[in-house]
Amino acid sequence: MNTQSFNPDFSHFTCPAPLRDYPHVILGHGGGGTLSHELIEGIFLPAFSNPLLDRLGDSAVLDVAGELAGGGRLAISTDSYVVRPLFFPGGSIGDLAVNGTVNDLAMSGAKPLCLTAGFIIEEGFPVAELGAVVDAMAKAARVAGVRIVTGDTKVVERGHGDGVYINTAGLGVVPPGVAVGAAPIRAGDVVLLSGMIGDHGMAIMSVREGLAFESRIESDTAPLHGLVAAMLEVCPEIRLLRDPTRGGVATSLNEIAGFAACGIEIDEAAVPVHAQVAGACEILGLDPLLVANEGKLLAIVPAEAAERVLTAMRAHEYGRQAVALGRVVEKHPKLVVMRTAVGGTRVIPMPIGEQLPRIC
Amino acid sequence: MNTQSFNPDFSHFTCPAPLRDYPHVILGHGGGGTLSHELIEGIFLPAFSNPLLDRLGDSAVLDVAGELAGGGRLAISTDSYVVRPLFFPGGSIGDLAVNGTVNDLAMSGAKPLCLTAGFIIEEGFPVAELGAVVDAMAKAARVAGVRIVTGDTKVVERGHGDGVYINTAGLGVVPPGVAVGAAPIRAGDVVLLSGMIGDHGMAIMSVREGLAFESRIESDTAPLHGLVAAMLEVCPEIRLLRDPTRGGVATSLNEIAGFAACGIEIDEAAVPVHAQVAGACEILGLDPLLVANEGKLLAIVPAEAAERVLTAMRAHEYGRQAVALGRVVEKHPKLVVMRTAVGGTRVIPMPIGEQLPRIC
């Protein structure tokens, strides 16, 4: 076992425009005056620049008539990000703030168009660290192919925040013919999972707890709309998509079983977990099924399409290790049950409270 | 002078569905499991219920093809709300979270369609107070005619937040033919202001500072899209709209003068301020031009349309005390200058930092 080293370095960050040489955010940066403008022009605009944002209006105006010409609909979503620490192996709050909201849109089958970004910054937060967060967001937005078109910054007094909290809202277009979530879930439908579980949660926890493993556990944060598009191409009848973030796969499956009033059965042997994640979970007494993922999805698909969708998933970079995790059953409605390796069964309950606070 | 009494009472609030009798928010309410669901079903859904929200998907899917059929465009905006105290004379953080974002959309000439809502709640926050905030938001949304269609809740540890922070993002439709901000601002254009300034900021400050006046200063928080629609009806050529929130009228005028590279001249005698607001500003050493408003707008209109627009504004409940505040001039580009009552002039600078922290 080597010691896991993780010391993010912000010394490389240079502010594209001088911020009156303030090394830390002060309350005045949230006042709407000259200091606010300097923060926006020194940090946010250079990172996020695009014609809509650069206008700095109170709102951004988009022409989406073309996107909707074929009868498409809009998807809208929001999430706040309060993860701690702000930087962790495999990503940062900036990556989550983009990918998390992009993925919420993708779960409707939508193609993400743009994001809004709201920052609540604690007085005293290092400007270099804010710059690094913003750069990570900008990079994630480029990778995901979305623009950040409007934003807002507030500064709160020291002790009333925690570095930076980010809210993003996302707007996407659901292509004509896509109707994820519209058809009922039926007994016999197959539950697919796009890859290894628990990576994000255990990447965070191993930093927080100072755990050391031979290979570093990295967050799986990734934008999933490309994977979803590939799946919809081979099976427009996908019944439902969910990204198992907070509360993990167990929570998402219980939500599905609950509102569809069906039973769900999963196979223990099929649950894909990296060895070091399983090890970390064992040390901390956690169940990987309850641990957050930030780059995985669950899909409920008709049985006859399952192989086809699985093949399409495995051909995509974010679905290489996709598996058939289980199936929808008529018995035990609203319950999720796991078939164990030795042939027994156990109920996988909805967790009550918070297993891992501030995970996303 | 009477003592200003302001003691908001939450004892009337009863949670529509029992929240396991937790009187305070705990970290588990942010975990995505059963407690999160109870918070959503006990507090948020009863207040905000509508078919899109009730589905509780990761995103809401809207059909706006009809709204855009005539060639309209979308406006999107976001703001985080960190005002302190959460309840103040004339409103609450819930009112601001709806009206502030609705107004940002309205400043594009957009008709607001829907809002997203993200809550960052501090562990230990009283559930009854959260309920009262949410009820205020729901009421403001009904008054403004917008739906809250999707949301998110995070809980952070005690000492890392401050009761509740709210982010809203708004989506609106800009009607065909409306192009606020598209035409250049020209010397001779008139600056209109929709009413008395400084009410919101001084309502907050008088509670914080325990100031007492004969009549209570109340926040002017209000949704302005109806007023904007009435103005656009008589003058589709409105050059620009701004709501002078953080940093007040002085900041908005400086922003306009800056990016339009024009001079702006305002008349001291025309600046409308309630006597008790002027008094409170004097006691605290504040300039009403720098104090936040939450239900006022500035409009730059062609000179020939000014009287017509002013008449339309005065016929609307949120514009009864509208005035012509000044004009756009060729001289002193990028500067805002006030003609004083005695015939002198003084420059109104952009404020540098934070005059009134946590005002919105």
* Distance separating the two termini of chain A: 28 Å
- Largest sheet of chain A, order of strands side by side? 9-11-8-12-10-13-14
Tally of discrete structural domains of chain A: 2
- CATH level 3 topology of the largest domain in chain A: Phosphoribosyl-aminoimidazole Synthetase, Chain A, domain 2
**Average pLDDT taken over every residue of chain A:** 92
Please describe the biggest sheet of chain A, giving its number of strands, its sense, and whether it closes into a barrel: 7 strands, mixed
Spans of at least 5 consecutive residues with low confidence of chain A: none
Textual characterization of the structure:
- The structure is a homodimer of 360-residue chains.
- The first copy, chain A, has 360 residues and is an alpha+beta fold.
- The first copy, chain A, has 2 domains: 148 residues, 60s Ribosomal Protein L30, Chain: A (2-Layer Sandwich); 158 residues, Alpha-Beta Complex (Phosphoribosyl-aminoimidazole Synthetase, Chain A, domain 2), CATH 3.90.650.10.
- In chain A, strands 9-11-8-12-10-13-14 form a 7-stranded mixed sheet, sandwiched between helices. Chain A has a 4-stranded mixed sheet with strand order 2-7-5-6.
- In chain A, strand 3 and strand 4 form a beta hairpin.
- Chain A is built from 10 helices and 14 strands.
- In chain A, helix 1 runs parallel beside helix 5, helix 4 packs parallel to helix 5 and helix 4 runs parallel beside helix 7.
- Chains A and B meet through helix 1, strand 1, strand 2, helix 4 and strand 5 of A and helix 1, strand 1, strand 2, helix 4 and strand 5 of B.
